[in-house]
Amino acid sequence: MSATQDSTPVASAPTEKMTLLRLLRNILPFVLPYRWLIAVTLSLTLVGSLMAQVNAVVLDRAVDAINALLHEPTFAWSRATRILLIISSILLGKEVVSLLVTFFQRYFGERMRILVSRDLSLRVVERILSFRMDFFSAEGNETGRLQSRIDRGIMSLSNTVNGFFIEILPLFTSAILALCLMFAANVYVGLVALCIVPIYFWVTNIQARRMKGGRRSIFQSHQAVSQGILNIIESIAVIKSFNREPIEADRQADVQTQMTDRQLATRRQSYFFNGLKSFLEQIGTVLIIILTAYLVLIDYPGMSIGKIMYHVMLFANVSAPIRQLHRIYDDLNDALIYAEGFFSILHADGEVEATGEHRAAEVRGEFCMQGVNFTYPNGNQALHDVTLRIPAGKITALVGLSGAGKTTIVSLLDKFYRPDSGSVTLDGVELDRWDTRCLREHVGLVLQKNHIFDGSIEENIRYGNPTATHEDILHAARQASLYDQVMALPHGFDTPALQLSGGQQQRVAIARMFVKNPPVIFLDEPTASLDAIATEQIKSSIDAIKAGRTVVIISHNIGQIIDADLIYVLQEGRVVQSGTPDEVYRQGGLYKQIFDASARSMNADKIAHTMQ
Hints:
Helix content is 65%, strand content 10%. The chain has 21 helices and 10 strands. The protein has helices spanning 20-31, 35-52, 54-70, 77-130, 133-137, 143-185, 187-234, 236-241, 245-297, 305-346, 406-413, 436-441, 457-462, 470-479, 483-487, 502-516, 532-546, 558-561, 581-587, 589-601, 604-611, and strands at residues 367-375, 381-390, 395-400, 421-426, 429-430, 443-446, 520-524, 550-554, 566-571, 574-579. Strand 7, helix 17 and strand 8 form a beta-alpha-beta unit. Helix 7 (187-234) packs antiparallel against helix 9.
């Protein structure tokens, strides 16, 4: 069976690196709808930042008041008690206010994170549903890799929003206020504190540049691990049947080892730079203590013992972002890496499925392909100058060896992909001009392997027609020779469809097509996974629904091919024979070879002799 891909190149990796400015620009549309949350959070941030300076101010006044009290000729316990009560009241009141501010700040910040996470998830689902089929078959867009890009992107971006309003914004607001208070108290001390900050940011910037490549490689390793585990789960039957568990375990171990090595190397760099930044912070604290102590000793105006503690505590508020910045910066750099993969999905405009404006209440189902060429993204041409006509209301069979291009043709007719050149029309209208939803509402598709959704049997059949009644579902199940088997189950049509056998799931897919009842039907090996009796039952049902409909069938079953009104024989992407079954057989060539080989493989002579 021919694989199907569009010839348009698909970019599986982001083409531009994510920067902080680009990240903010991309995430802003998801944050702005919650302006009221932003306003509340900003107000709480300002109040919380003011509260963070209270300890320094109180300690400054308290130390100076107590120092003055100790130097008085007579110690007065009443004044000391009053000072202690005032200090205790202010500090306890401050803690109560801070508790309330922190609670609501974290609550509203978390609420914003959850809402943004929801919106990101919905937006990426909408985008994925709008993409052409070739997007999902492109290198780098395997299921596991896509899932990793989406999951980690949403988690990292929503955490970035939460971290900005819960950690970064309060810390930097508090630092700015503390720095302003230091300058107001003493310009020299303020300058010392201010000089430490850019040095710290300079070191942090070097850290980010050197570690970005390591972070990107770790992200790629995470995708490889996710894809590897998914492949193991999907191929578990094959793995066990060949006793290849050790090979798969070793292969996964290699991927995990590479990721571990990259993680350890990144952590080594991170710990080195974090230690260097902590050292710079401590140097700043030491310089503040030395300078303020010196100013007190020389009796500098406005400086006192209380001011030493005042400036040390304020510098602690200035350096609080510095203490937290390495962790915040790590998270932010992770967000930049994960955002590249996530927003490459949202911004993949070239991969969106195109649609036209032409609609029709009735579709006759006459398809024409004229000079159609189709090429894989890797350069392997699948169809070569294919010209054919599928008459309305007739049965057309596509016959050929595996890889001849049969499924590719069906995919082009269903507008899953676009040809490189040539034209494809439906009822005389170019397929590109057709509204895609309208086209597919009139087409029923049954594949060799159909997807069964997580849900009941009835829900899976109703997927073909959401407005179908329960009676419609039962009728479709009878047409697909599924009704009796389902009714024999303890929960009947409420049974989870994933619990059915492969053949039963195929019947569910066929029943889904019956309940849709479309004028055009594409059948790609519809009975390949069914037994002989089920095949005959399904054939009878399909024969009944074929009447008056346009049917395109791909099958290696002679009984289904020979019923066709018209046959097109394909070889290596070219139409090599066409006509009625009898005409094409008398032409000899590939069709006769396939027909005779099928008869021999079925031991037709012995079967005929047995039936005599």
